[in-house]
Amino acid sequence: MEKTNYVEHGERKCLHAPGGLMVLLAFHLVICVFGMVGNGIVLWFLGFQMKRNPFTVYILNLAVADCSMLLLFFLLSLGYLILTIICYGLISFHPFINNFVYAVEFLCHFFVLSSLGLLTAISTERSFSVIFPIWYRCQRPKHLSGIVSGVLWASIGSFILAMYLCYLFHQRYGTLFSSVITVYSVILSLLMLISNVSMVIRLRCGSQRRHLGKLYVAVVLNVIFFFAFGMPFTLNAVLALLHNSISVNQRVVLVLALLNSSINPVIYFLVGSWRQRRFQGSIKVALRRVFEEKARIKEESPVPEGIPTESTAQGPAGQGEA
């Protein structure tokens, strides 16, 4: 966040920001609203309109992380904009505002790293389902998706909380925790990259060459956009903590992070509505084409007779719906 000047007007000391910063804050608000609406639709659809399967559990958690990130920054930007407009930014609250901004920043890192972990989990499990389909469908623990999601939320949250407490109480362990998170991010990124590459090679270069299913395409696009938009935010924060410097323009990094949290619902809609070289269908139909188990099983390799699939064991998802 760019620095602002405090100027006295009568008995009040007011917050003044450059015009460019005001425009940037308004732009942030637009992105946040757009992303929250998109992620809210995904949450509504996966939470109430279709039966959950192993992959939609991860997608649901990913939408929660993205929507939380956008809501958090929306409230921060809106409050900052209101304080600036109505000249209510009392200088006595300046230390409190600074601490609040830093808390929001740490929470943003928490949600971005959670997105990284969830994308890695989706990619890894999807890769296993392609490379070892019989083992995956017969031996996979029933509640694996929920357990992995919970472990990811808890572990990343613990590290981020420890880092924030070190900052708040001026302890010397901030560099240690930032180093651990750096290693954590590198391991997850490599695992996510290897999983997606091996999955694509298996599908496109194996003995039985197959087209990528819609969920495969959506996951791969999610990963690509995360590396392009979400990773700079994490790298910039780590460099700032380790070397007390910022590598790139902070405004650009922040806008990219907000775009990363907003782009996934657009990907799901575009992938689900793309049929016969043109986009068609409603949002609900497009999401169902991406996430529904029946459509995905048709796109995957057939399994030998006698091997039960998850959809036959649980019944078709969304039975009776259009």
TrEMBL record:
Record keywords: Cell membrane, G-protein coupled receptor, Membrane, Receptor, Transducer, Transmembrane, Transmembrane helix
GO molecular function list: G protein-coupled receptor activity
Coiled-coil blocks: none
Protein's cellular compartments: Cell membrane
InterPro entries to which the protein is assigned, alphabetical: GPCR_Rhodpsn, GPCR_Rhodpsn_7TM, MRGPCRFAMILY
Segments of this protein annotated with the region Disordered: 297-322
UniProt-recorded name of the protein: Uncharacterized protein
